[in-house]
Amino acid sequence: MPVNLIAPEASSLLPVDGVWLGCAEAHIRKSNRKDLLVMQLAAGSHVVGVFTQNQFCAAPVLLCKTHLASGEPIRALLVNTGCANAGTGEDGLSRAKLTTEALAKSLNLKPQQILPFSTGVILEPLPADKVIGGLPAAIADLKQDNWLNAAEAIMTTDIVAKGSSRHIMLGGKQIAITGISKGSGMIHPNMATMLGYIATDAVVSAKALESIIHYAVNKSFNCITVDGDTSTNDSLILIASNLAGNDEISETSAEYIVLRDALTEVAIELAQAIVRDGEGATKFITVRIEGGHDEGECRKVAYAIAHSPLIKTAFFASDPNLGRILAAIGYAGVEQLDVNVLKLYLGDVLVAEHGGRALAYEEAQGVAVMQQPEILVRVDLGRGSANCTVWTCDFSYDYVRINADYRS
Amino acid sequence: MPVNLIAPEASSLLPVDGVWLGCAEAHIRKSNRKDLLVMQLAAGSHVVGVFTQNQFCAAPVLLCKTHLASGEPIRALLVNTGCANAGTGEDGLSRAKLTTEALAKSLNLKPQQILPFSTGVILEPLPADKVIGGLPAAIADLKQDNWLNAAEAIMTTDIVAKGSSRHIMLGGKQIAITGISKGSGMIHPNMATMLGYIATDAVVSAKALESIIHYAVNKSFNCITVDGDTSTNDSLILIASNLAGNDEISETSAEYIVLRDALTEVAIELAQAIVRDGEGATKFITVRIEGGHDEGECRKVAYAIAHSPLIKTAFFASDPNLGRILAAIGYAGVEQLDVNVLKLYLGDVLVAEHGGRALAYEEAQGVAVMQQPEILVRVDLGRGSANCTVWTCDFSYDYVRINADYRS
Hints:
The structure is a homodimer.
Chain A: E1 19-24, E2 36-41, E3 46-51, H1 59-69, E4 76-83, H2 89-107, E5 114-121, H3 128-140, H4 147-153, E6 162-170, E7 173-182, E8 195-200, H5 206-219, E9 235-240, H6 256-276, E10 284-292, H7 295-307, H8 309-316, H9 323-331, E11 343-346, E12 349-353, E13 356-357, H10 363-370, E14 374-380, E15 386-393, H11 397-405
C-alpha cells in the first residue's frame, strides 16, 4: 500500500486558466478504465520538457523532441497508457505520428503543435486506431476542472492518483499551479518511468520557464529511485498559459524565485508521490548524504544505498542490518574514502563511526526507527560540504508479485 | 531451490596432497552447525589471493593482505561463518588478530603465516573467544579427505555445499585440483560475497600462480551477480602445495595453459554454483554480449541486464517482457549506441532488431525459452568484435523472504 499517500480530492486540484483536460476509455490494453488524456492549451502558452536519457527512448519521446524543436507553438498534449510504443522502431514512429495527426485535425492544429506521450508495455505496437478512436470522447470531455480525472487516466501500476496544487501571489495577482504524475516501477533518475505535467497560468518567459524546469527536475524527479531502471518514456512537461495578468517573469525578475520554488515544490510532491506509491512499497526512505567533496560523490553513495536490494529488503523487514548500508557506502566508488571518519545515522540515532558500530548504539534503537513508515538514512562523509538527498522505498514481496504479473 | 545444482559426493572431492582440512561447531551465531574451518598447508606451499574492492572491507581481509605482503610463507587458513567482522574498526582487527595468534600457537607457526576469513552478519563484533574455543576440535579433525565437510562449514544462506574437483596430467604426473566456495547473496563482481578456496598439488612458481588467479577470477567470480551488492569480505585463495613431483610450471612452461585452464574451469564451476544457489533463484541466466567496441561496454550492457530487478522478476514469472531488456540496454551507458543495428536473442530466438520486435518473433517462442531453468540472453551490439559473458539468476519472492529474515 502507498506510504502516507492518498489521492487528492478533485476540488483540491485547482483549474489552471487556459488548460483544458479531457479523458476517455480507448480500450488500449484493458477495458473499463480511462487510458487516454488530451490536454488542450490556450494560444500563447509556453511549453518546455525534459525527457528520458535512455537510448532506447520511445517513439513519442522522439516525436516530442522534434515538435518542441520545430518552433511551432505547442497547443495540445496526447497521453495514452497501456502501450509504451518503445522498442518499436520506424513503425512505432509512424503510429505515433498517426495519432498526433488525428488530434491535430480534430483541434485544427498542425501535428507539430501536439506532444504525444505513451506509457505501458514496451516492445508492442501502439494500437493507433484505438487511440484515434478515443479522441472524440476525450475532446468532448475537455474542461479546466478535470485534473483528478486526468491523473487517473495516466495511471498504470499506480495504486493512487497523484496530483499537487497551490495558489501563489505574483505581483498582486493570484496564480494557480497544478500538476499530476504517474509512475511506480522502473523508477530511476534521468529520469524515472514517469510522466509529469505541471501547469501554471503565470505569465513567464519561455527562457525563464526552461530554467525553471531544469532546476525543478534536479530537485525532484532526478532524486527518486524505486528499482534503478531508467525507463524509455520518461517525460516531464511544464506549461505556462500566460493568462494570469501578472507582469512577465524573466530570470532576472524579483519574483522569479517565488515562481521557481513554488513549481519545484509541486514537482517534489509529485516525485515523492511516485516513490510513496512505488511498486510494493511499505516504507518511504530519505537517503541524505552530507559532508562530501562534491555532489557527484554524494549521489554515488546515495544511489548505492537506495539501489541495494539487500538494504531495501532489510527496510521491508524493519531489520536494522546496518552493515549492509556500510557495505554499500564501501562499494559506491568514492575515491579514497576514509571509513574511519564517516558517520552513519538512522533517523537521529548514530549507528556507526570510527569504522564500526557506535559505542552507544543499541539495536532496539535501530528497530524503533526502522518500524516507522518514514525513515531517514543519513551519512556524513566527513570530507567536505557537499550534500544530496534521494528518496526511495523498500523492497517487498509485492514488488516481485507486481512485476511478475504486470503483463497478465 | 538451487538451479541444476546438487551437493558433490564426498568422494568426488579429491584430496590434495599437502592440504588438510578440519571443521568444528564453534557456536558463533547458531548451534548445531559447523561454522569453523581450519586448513593446514604443507611447508613449501604457494598461496595467492584476490580480495574485495569494497572500501569498507572486513578486518580479516585487511589482515590477509598484510600477512600475504609480509613474505612469511602461509601455512594455514582460518574461516568462520556467522559473523563477517566487517564494519568493526580497530576492535575488529584486534579480534581477528587474536584468532590468528591462537591458531598460530596451536600449530607452532607465526601469526603472519595464517590467513583469516569471516563471513556472516556485518557490523557485529567477532566473538573471538568462540572461534578460539573451536580451534582444538577443528585441529583434531584435520585430514586431507575432508573437502565436503569444509564446503559445508563455510555455508551461510547457501542451500547446497559447493565443490569442484578433477585430475589432470602434467608432465606425466597426476595432479589433483579441488575447490570449494560459498555465497548466495550480496553477489557482485570485484568480487561477490563469496569465499573460494582452490588447491592443487601441482608444482608451480609463485609468480605463475599469481598470474593464474587473476586470469581465473576474471573468467569466473568476476562474471557473476545475484543482487549487485559487492560484499566486504570476498576472498578467493589459490593454493599450490608443490608436492606432485612434476617439473615446476612457470608462465613460460608449455603446460602452463593446461594448469591455468583446469584451475579456471574449477573456478567457473564454483562461481556458477554460487549463482545457481543464488538467494531465491529459480532460473540460471547467462547474459552474453557480443559485437561491442570493447569488453568494457559489453560488461556495462551485461550488468545493466543482469542487475535489473524488473528483468529478473520477469524471468521468475517466465514472462517474455523483453522490452525491459531493451530498456536496460538503452540505459547501460554505451556511447552512441545505435539501437537500430543491435539484435536481441532469447536462446536461439531472434526477438528484436531494427529498433523493435523482430517480424518473425511470436510470444510463444519467448515463453518457451523463459520456462527453461537455464536461459541464454544474447545481445549483438553490431559494432565490433568484443564480447563478455555474465551469469545471474532470477528474482523471486524467496529473495525477499531470505533477506528480510536473514538475521532472525
